[in-house]
Design goal:
mainly beta, ten-stranded antiparallel beta sheet, five-stranded mixed beta sheet, 1 helix
Length: 495
């Protein structure tokens, strides 16, 4: 039976959702039913539907006591809200139901595994968050927390593991019939590590080993891990806090990390071979993946940045949205991402130009406009001329505002820039990425959805994501070159 705390949250979110016009939301990115959203949780396939739970504070568009919101979809793009799944209503989670995962048990029940948070008073009058792992079982709509909770406590930590930073379990069913999960943890000096646990029934868990250690390389605490096999390699995704940049990698302090390597399942030995950022833009964190029924590994992340989420140009009745679902692959040892193929079903009103010369002032092309757009660009130097020095596409544009993607081939630098988007706060406005080009030729795919832009380079070799608050009336798109460039463009409205 739902607790009073959960019943109140469900009643409030139903009322608050009715006050938010559909046109005030993204068209095909999941946003919270009401209030605040952060990490994706429990991204899973269950009873013929994709389920997405999310970190949720229904009562405010700012972070607060964490609940789990809930939505379902058949195509990963159109979502139906269900009542909130979890509320902080037990002694072990009264200060928050933090991030976790979901899977189907052998008996058909859906298991939610999450981090329960309890504020522990300290001698100096401050509080620390004691974090434990907990389970709720349900039918895809309503869930009951286990009487035995929490199922993993500080007793299941390795020597030196912090009981205050022990969170975000991601569970899966192994090929050997056992259940496994990884969880984020750190040592007493805040150095991140990923812990591996196993279970025979999905309810009773035991510690296995430290699966991966930071050793001071990538930030500090490692949050929101995910661990899976892909294209013959093993992939570990995590979101380290307080990262330092390394060249053009890891520019967001609370950033994302992809480790690719090999895995010996018998001894649970993960050997790293390659590291990279997951997203090179401004707004992307805490991604989680699902294996689809047709065998694709699909990832969704929180499309926001912790350093900017409380600095807003205007008040909102909701805040936070998820990224496009992205199909993942490993090619030549590197993680690739591309929009799920279901997005192509939304394409309408094709407009196409080939061999357009762009030189000097901004060029507008008839039919190339909009704020829900899927646009493919191929840029190359004009034949017989010096290579262009800069190419830019500007979107969400009117006379005063725009956001831009620009490329300088002599530096191999691609930049996303929203400083002219209408922001009235000194937030992060730019990110740059070192990208590959072929004599100045570059291929991009830009997906716009009202309040966001996601840029896919070379069919997903790199991705840059940013949110924007520009009024929807600003729907212009234009092209600019310093020098002479030739442009091919195919644009679709997404409906």
């Amino acid at each position: 039976m739902a607790s009073q705390t959960l019943r109140e949250a469900r009643k409030y979110e139903e009322m608050a959702e009715a006050q938010i016009p559909q046109e005030a939301r993204p068209a095909f990115h999941l946003s919270p039913r009401a209030g605040w959203m952060n990490d994706p949780n429990g991204f899973s396939w269950y009873q013929g539907m994709y389920h997405m739970f999310y970190q949720y504070h229904p009562y405010s568009s700012y972070w607060g006591p964490m609940h789990w919101g809930h939505a379902v979809s058949r195509d990963l793009l159109h979502w139906e809200y269900l009542p909130a799944a979890l509320a902080p209503d037990m002694p072990y989670d009264k200060d928050g139901c933090f991030s976790g995962s979901a899977l189907e048990l052998a008996d058909g029940r859906q298991m939610l595994m999450y981090t329960g948070v309890l504020h522990e008073p300290q001698p100096d009058g401050s509080f620390h968050e004691v974090q434990t792992q907990c389970i709720a079982l349900g039918d895809g709509r309503d869930y009951e927390k286990l009487p035995e909770n929490p199922v993993l406590t500080e007793k299941a930590l390795p020597e030196g593991g912090s009981r205050y930073d022990f969170r975000d379990p991601k569970a899966w069913l192994g090929e050997d019939g056992r259940y496994y999960c990884v969880a984020g943890n750190c040592t007493g000096d805040k150095d991140g590590q990923i812990l591996l646990y196993s279970s025979a029934d999905g309810l009773h868990w035991q510690y296995e080993k430290i699966l991966a250690k930071n050793n001071g390389r990538f930030g500090r605490m490692w949050e929101c891990p995910d661990f899976f096999e892909l294209d013959g390699k093993q992939v570990l995704l995590t979101s380290p806090q307080d990262m330092l940049p390394r060249g053009f990698e890891y520019h967001n302090g609370n950033g994302t990390l992809c480790l690719i390597g090999s895995y010996e399942k018998e001894g649970h030995v993960f050997t790293e071979e390659h590291d990279q950022s997951i997203d090179y833009g401004i707004d992307f964190y805490a991604p989680q993946t699902v294996l689809t029924p047709d065998g694709r590994r699909v990832m969704i992340g929180w499309m926001q940045n912790w350093d900017t989420c409380n600095m807003r140009s205007q008040p909102k009745t909701w805040f936070g949205q998820m990224s496009l679902p992205r199909e993942l692959s490993v090619r030549e040892g590197r993680l690739y991402q591309k929009p799920v193929r279901e997005l192509e079903e939304l394409r309408r009103n094709k407009v196409e130009y080939h061999g357009v010369k762009v030189a000097g002032e901004a060029l507008r092309l008839a039919g190339i406009e909009g704020r829900t757009v899927d646009m493919e660009l191929e840029i190359a130097p004009a034949q017989g001329s010096e290579p262009y020095r800069k190419f830019a596409v500007r979107f969400a544009q009117d006379q005063e505002r725009h956001t831009a993607i620009s490329f300088r081939p002599h530096e191999s630098i691609l930049k996303i820039d929203r400083k002219f988007s209408g922001s009235r706060r000194a937030i992060i406005h730019q990110r740059r990425s070192l990208v590959r080009h072929e004599g100045g030729a570059l291929r991009l795919r830009i997906v716009l959805d009202r309040f966001s832009a996601e840029v896919f380079v070379w069919d997903g070799e790199q991705v840059l994501t940013a949110t924007i608050d520009t009024p929807l009336s600003a729907d212009g798109i234009s092209f600019y070159a310093d020098g002479e460039a030739v442009l091919d463009v195919v644009k679709y409205d997404l409906m």
